[in-house]
Write a structure and sequence with these properties.
This protein is mainly α. Helix content is about 65%, strand content about 0%. The chain has eight helices and no strands. α1 runs antiparallel to α8 (about 210-235) and α5 (about 145-160) packs across α6 (about 165-175). The longest helix has about 50 residues, at about 65-110. The chain is elongated.
Length: about 240
């Protein structure tokens, strides 16, 4: 690279700290926002129960029916909020991939492309970045982090588009993430195949990333930038 030292400092000083802060936000703000959902659901059920038993009505009304109605309201809240949580986990994977991609293409356009090429949208393709990097001796597909990043790319496309080419590839590589985490073990013990249709991963349905899986994607992104800096510093790889 013509500006190797500049890009090393750019990655070390701007890109990686941004990723780390995003990861901290994910762990300390996004996940913690849902820690009290269960107690909130219980409070909703209790409030509903108080409303039902004090409202005018048939004195002979079965209290068990009222208790069931109150419980259902709390359960409905819990299910809805956990669906929102799952949707946010899925969306975070999309955002993480595209943050990585935009940083990667920024370097591509400013360093690997010629000045007359950097606004040519036909060259804004991952394959083109790989090809240009190989020309200077860097093969990112040999990076230890690359397979996990490829998985993240498939996940991001699946979350955005539901069924399609990326989803089909992901089903072969990671069939378990299409099963809710709390029933995965039982599901695979029965040798049941994963669902074949994906409709609404943005709504927290059909694709079930866990916080640990998101953390692994964060680690893969950080590892990639470290590997790229190392290769740039060596003048290739």
């Amino acid at each position: 690279m013509h500006n190797a030292l500049f890009w090393i400092e750019y990655i070390r000083g701007l890109i990686i700290p941004h990723v780390e802060l995003l990861e901290k936000t994910f762990n300390q703000r996004i996940l913690t926002a849902f820690e009290t959902v269960e107690s909130e659901a219980e409070q909703i059920s209790s409030k509903k129960w108080e409303q039902l038993i004090h409202q005018p009505g048939d004195p002979n009304e079965n209290l068990s029916d009222l208790a069931e109605e109150a419980l259902e309201e709390g359960i409905s809240y819990y299910i809805t909020m956990m669906g929102i949580r799952q949707g946010l986990l899925n969306i975070f994977a999309v955002g993480l991939w595209h943050l990585f991609e935009q940083n990667f293409f920024f370097i591509h356009r400013r360093e690997l492309l010629l000045p007359q090429e950097e606004n040519d949208a036909e060259l804004f393709k991952l394959g083109e970045v790989k090809r240009r990097l190989k020309q200077i001796g860097i093969n990112i597909e040999k990076f230890r982090s690359w397979n996990k990043l490829e998985e993240l790319r498939l996940v991001a496309n699946t979350v955005k588009h539901a069924d399609g080419i990326s989803a089909n590839q992901l089903k072969k590589q990671r069939p378990e993430i299409f099963i809710p985490p709390d029933v995965r073990d039982e599901f695979f013990l029965r040798n049941a195949p994963p669902p074949t249709q994906i409709f609404k991963p943005l709504a927290g349905e059909d694709l079930y990333l866990t916080p640990e899986e998101i953390r692994l994607y964060f680690q893969a992104v950080k590892d990639f930038w470290e590997e790229l800096m190392d290769n740039i510093g060596k003048g290739g790889g």
